[in-house]
Amino acid sequence: MASASGIQAAEHDATSAPATSSKQDVNPWSVSGEVGEDGKVKAIDYRKLVEDFGTALIDDALLQRFEKVTGHKPHRFMRRQIVFSHRDLSLILDRYEKNEPFFLYTGRGPSSDSMHIGHTQVFDFVKWLQDVLDAPLIIMLTDDEKYLFSEKRTVDEVMGYCRTNAMDIIAVGFDPKKTFIFSDFQYVGGAFYKNIVRFAKRVTYNTVKAIFGFDGSSNIGKIHFASIQGATSFASSFPHIFGEDESKTASIPCLIPCAIDQDPYFRLTRDCAAGLHLAKPSLIHMRFLDALQGPGSKMSASDDTSAIFLNDSAKQIKTKINKYAFSGGRETLEEHRQKGGDADVDVSYQYLQFFLESDEELAKIKADYNSGKLLTGELKAMCIDHLQKYVGGFQERRSRVTDAVVDEFMSTRPLEWKGNPKVPRADLVVPDIKPGEDGAAAGEAGSGKLSKNQLKKMLKEQQIAQRKAAMAKDKTVDSEAAASGGP
Ligand code: TRP
């Protein structure tokens, strides 16, 4: 998520810090672990971030409630504290329980064409959430941010990355009926801009200075940018999805899955939302995928040896893991057999935590590695196998993403979703259509208008969904049958 551009680092004083030891620093533009007296970088202390940022750990009680309410076992990222922290996740579960509308919101700053597997983890998780919750999803591409925060990039350049990054994101597997992807350069205007300006009016320079570390030499675009990332949290920014009636959309919250470095934006957004009498966004935070070099580092798009890229070949993956993946093994085979390795610092094991579904298998690998039964070479081979499958699957889906597919995801159009299958939808949200707008180019990018037919189709689908849900409730049949049975 954060790009280690270095530009921002100057504003955070990181470059002038003494080279010997320093505290961990996690902000939207750079991430670095604590550097000890010995000059070694330590792993990011995520518990400390929870304290510093004032978020809450996702505990067992919350996981149990998630399972009870959704009927799904929590994702492996949730079970393994990879998705480890949250703000008001329970409010979203309350709404799901009653089938009241909410949406998912996440984003990416398109800073280059080379996305790596560290970038796709949040998206993989969001896809799973979209499937489990049957919720609309909004994906923001902050091309403006990546222009404002870089000295070199041009506007055309970031707009190009936007398009290719959208292709990569789509290849994660999102449902086009439930997903709207937009670029700031293209979508800012209309209802969204109204919210951006409402947001901006509530934020002073002193506040962003305190939150983001800006100073008098920061360009004013950076200072303003938080309003844009923040205003995306409000349902009324998307009238083609949630309708134009602000008295209804004001209460529709979003759930923002993001890497923990994005939290400062949304802390500010939650404050602003309260002042604007709009629903506060809820959040769930994910930790980073370590760079190949080990804990405390983060994959970087500009360093080929730090990351596995989405266009790496099976052979490149094998070479990179074997050559660069930091190992928790011992110096010699004998010593390893005798004393065992340290899975907690081993990068291949870290990656298996992300990619291997079975908890039992993972526990066994850890036990075997730490006891010395499993060797580094064997552990690396398992990791290589999983990564090759993951990246191979991605590349296969990516090859099917055409320009037309991107246009579809990025067009302003209504989305279709049903939410909790056990309960009738609490609120029919129908985009208002003004007289005289019939036949407006349906789905045309930027028009934000619906044709009569689109509206009719959408209403009909919503009614069918409602009827289905109502029938399910009447008969008090079990949830499985309710989801698949039709009227
Ligand atoms: N600022 C983020 C980045 O640089 C992009 C982003 C915008 C985002 N909105 C978001 C990320 C919401 C997560 C959630 O990558």
Automatic annotation (TrEMBL):
InterPro entries: aa-tRNA-synth_I_CS (IPR001412), aa-tRNA-synth_Ic (IPR002305), Rossmann-like_a/b/a_fold (IPR014729), Trp-tRNA-ligase (IPR002306)
Gene3D superfamilies: HUPs (3.40.50.620), Tyrosyl-Transfer RNA Synthetase (1.10.240.10)
Domain of life: Eukaryota
GO molecular function: ATP binding; tryptophan-tRNA ligase activity
Keywords: Aminoacyl-tRNA synthetase, ATP-binding, Cytoplasm, Ligase, Nucleotide-binding, Protein biosynthesis
GO cellular component, one term: cytoplasm
EC category name: ligase
Localization in the cell: Cytoplasm
BP-aspect Gene Ontology terms: tryptophanyl-tRNA aminoacylation
Major localization listed first in the record, in broad terms: cytoplasm
Region (Disordered), start-end ranges: 1-33, 431-487
EC annotation from Swiss-Prot or TrEMBL: 6.1.1.2
Biased composition (Polar residues): 17-30
PANTHER family, alphabetized: TRYPTOPHAN--TRNA LIGASE, CYTOPLASMIC (PTHR10055:SF1), TRYPTOPHANYL-TRNA SYNTHETASE (PTHR10055)
NCBIfam families: trpS (TIGR00233)
Similarity annotation: Belongs to the class-I aminoacyl-tRNA synthetase family.
Stated name of the protein: Tryptophan--tRNA ligase, cytoplasmic
